[in-house]
Each structure stands twice: as structure tokens, then as C-alpha cells.
Amino acid sequence: MKTEDRTEHPAMDETGHRTMDETGRRTARRSDLIAAAAGVLLVTAAVLVGRSIQDADGSLHVHWPPLLASWYPHTGPGTPAAVAVAAAVVAYGPPLADRIRRRALLPAAWAASLAWVFSLALIDGWGRGIAGRLTTKHEYLQAIDRFQDIGAALRGFDDHILIGSPDNWPTHVAGHPPGATLTFVLLDRIGLGGGGWAGGWCIVVGASAVPAALITLRVLADERLARRAAPFLVLAPVAVWTGTSADACFAAVAAWSVALLALAATRSVRLPMAAAFASGLLFGLTCYLSYGLTLIAFLLLGVLVLARSARSVPLFLAGALVVPVLFTLAGYDWWESYRLLVERYYQGAGGIRPYSYWVWANLACTAIAAGLATVAGLRRAAAGTPGAVRTLRTGTAHASQRLILLTLMAFLALLAADLSGMSKAETERIWQPFILWLLPAAALLPTSTRRSWLTAQAVVALLVNHLLWTGW
After folding, report:
1. What pLDDT was estimated at residue 322?
2. Rounded to the nearest 5°, which phi and psi values hold at 307?
3. Separation of alpha carbons 163 and 168, rounded Å
4. Beta carbons within 8 Å of 170's beta carbon, 6+ residues apart
5. What is this structure's pTM?
């Protein structure tokens, strides 16, 4: 059986019981196109309805709904590089990913992701695209000087969250646990202060989420699917918001927590217990970088279910306690801080933005950030979900079904964030840690169509970055 035949329908992948005839393959590909068209219609509806609401009463608090962006057609120094990187990944990405040496795949994917993110960011120029992104009045770098005494800043952190409080924190500082701000404080302390270093740090660390995802796919699905997913992980439209956004850094920390737990639970590493502890340590850190990333627990649970092993849980939990204990001993109360954040959220735009629009328009933002190939891949994942879920009891899931189940857990995490009402708008940036795990669904698409779908991914990213000025 040819590779492309094995992936036309996830439920039939690698089972060897039945193959799909040419009519079935054509029907599956037509369904992929219909799913992508449905994604385009969802985005179009979000744009038109959002424009109508925003023009009527301004309650969306975005200039180009559903994205936090403004209409701003432009080119920049990164334009030739972005086009060149996109063309190279489309032309050479799939065959290279299939043939490259196993050890070389991860660094190659990281390097390609870095090239893609940097070139997209530089479309807006070095200052506006990278160095200035984290220095605006809403960002973390505005609070660096207030952490001269870190202990005092942590003990008094809650006193400055609400808008009416004295010297209230900038939006992003107030909206996250102090671990996020401390990242940039520590960079400043070691001599890497300023927007350029902060932006570069977020891009370099954020791009490392790609090899973390590939490691997870290798051990939970198989090498072949990881290689098929690699070009789609690299050439994702969400890279527009990876450079430069602290959420990209958060996504990477969360991704490495998932990857290390996958290695530990499947005993695919020399020191599985050390990997389990490190995974817990990173998950604990993740929760102190962003409140919403506690939902990464969905993916971690999925890893344990797919590995059919709980041996890693005790050391994972031990590691997960380290960061919370340290912050608590330093005088910071996570729960009280979150309670105050919810109040601050509704003091600002979050209390005005209509839930009835954003509960579905957030998904339109996700469709843009994940790209049409991901939408088509998710269509195949949805079709294969019933069969994949049935295999959980027997542990007979094949590689494609394990990928589907991992994708399902990521979608459940994203759905929980959506329904919570605490993610109204800006999800193209905020949901990067979840969108990352939707991208591998494109590996379910037929081999012969990969270049076409990769082209679609690149076109979305290039259009967004050249036509819009994205926020944050």
C-alpha cells in the first residue's frame, strides 16, 4: 500500500484490513476542500458580523475583527526572506522531512521555524516587528524597574492588579502570574535587557516548541507521522504571533512539559524518572506564566492515557509542586491573584466584549492562526475520532489514531478556554500553546497534496502579515 493510500482516512491507517478505492480517495479530498471552505466562511462571517458590531457600538475593542489588528498594507525588510523561506519549505520541506537523518530532523525543524518566524516579524522592521513589541505601555518590560526587590514585588503583587489600585500593573503584567514578568526581569539582570533581547528570546524559545511537538509525536504516534507533520509545524500561520509575543515562550515551556512526560511515560529516554520530574517542573512553571495554561493538563492526561502508564505520575507531581511552593514561600498567592485578575478582566475590555460573538469568533481566529491545512486535517481527525476513542479500552490504537487522540485533547483544552469567557478576543496570540497541537492534524492529509496545503498555509501567513498590523 502506498503511503498516501494509508492516510486517506484515519480509521483505515495502517490496519491492513481495507483500502480505499479511487472514488473514496476523491470523496475524502473533496471533503478536505469543503472543510477548508467552511473555515473560510467562518472567518468571513466573523469579519462581516464583527465589523457590523464594532461600527455600531465599538464593543469588540478590535479594529479588524476578529483579529486584534488594523488594516495596514505594507512590505518590509523581511518580505523577500519570508517569501523565500515559504517557497523553500513548500518545495523541499516534505521530501527533506521524509529523508533527513533522524537526529537531524529536530534541529532542522527548529532552524526552519526560526527562519520563518524571524522573517515574518521583520516584515514590520526590526524596531516595530521585534525590538519594540514588548516595550509598549501594556507590556512586561514596563514593569522591570518595579522588581528591583523581587521579594517585595511578589509579596505586593496582588495590590496592583485592579485598575483602581495605586500604580496598577500594565495590562499583561496584571493579566499573568509574576513568573511571566520575572522572565524578563532575569534577562535584564544577566545583561540582556531591552526590547531586542526580549523579542529575540521569545522567538528563539518559542520556535523550540516545534521540536518538542515532534518528539511527542515520535513517541506517542510514530516516526513517519512526525516527519509528515514537521513541515506543517514549521510553516504555520501562527508564526505571525510567535514573533514577537511572550505567549510563544509560554507555548514552548508547556510543549516541553508535554514532550518530557511523553518520553517518561513511554520509557523512551534513558532516565524516565528524571524526565517525569522535569516535565512536572515545567508544568508548574507554565501555571505561573499564564493562568489559562493550567488547561495544558488536558494534553498531559492524554499523554498518560496514550502511554497506558501512570508510573511517571508521582515524580511528575513532585516536580509540579516545586515552582508553586517557591512562589508561595516568597509571599505570592496564586489563587488570590487569579481572583483579582477575573475582577480586573471585567473592569476592562473583557467586561464589554460580547460573549455571544467571541464564543464562535475565537474559533475563526484559530482557523486563521492554524491555517487551512490544519482545518482540513481536523476534518479527517474528527472523522476518525469515534474509531480512535474505541481503541482506548483495548490499547490497539495505531499511529494515526494516537495522533487523533492527542489532537482531540488539545481541542478540548481550547474549547474549555473558549467557553470560560476569559478568552474573548486576541486568541490568535493567547491560544498558541493549544494551536501548536492542532497543527499535526495536517499529517493525516494525503502525501500527494502536501505541497498544495503547505502553500495555503504560507499564503495565509503572508497575507495577514502584509495586509494587517497585528496587535501586541
Report:
1. 98
2. -80, -15
3. 6
4. 137, 138, 139, 140, 142, 143
5. 0.94
Cα separation, 161 vs 168, in Å, equals 6
The residue-averaged pLDDT of 31-39 equals 98
Ranges of H-type helices in 266-312: 272-287, 297-307
| Grid cell at residue 201 | 528570546
For residue 69, give the 3-state DSSP assignment. strand
Range in 18-32, 60-74, 202-216, 309-323 with the lowest mean pLDDT:
18-32
Burial of 117 (0-12, 13-18, 19+ CB in 10 A): buried
Q: Tell me: the pLDDT tens digits for 218-270? A: 999 999 999 999 999 999 999 999 999 999 999 999 999 999 999 999 999 99
Question: DSSP characters for 120-153?
Answer: HHGGG-HIIIIITGGGSTTSGGGGGGGGSSHHHH
Which letter does DSSP use for residue 268 in this model? -
Please give the Cα distance from 171 to 180 (Å, whole number). 12
Determine the Cα–Cα distance for residues 408 and 306; give it in Å rounded to an integer.
Answer: 12
Q: What is the pLDDT of residue 19?
A: 52
Distance CA 151, CA 432 (A): 30
CA distances (Å), 445 to each of 6, 223, 375, 441, in order?
A: 10, 16, 11, 8
Would you put residue 296 in left (φ > 0), alpha (ψ -120 to 50) or beta?
alpha
**φ, ψ at 469 (rounded to 5°):** -100, 105
Q: Give the torsion sign (CA, 170, 174, 176, 179).
A: positive
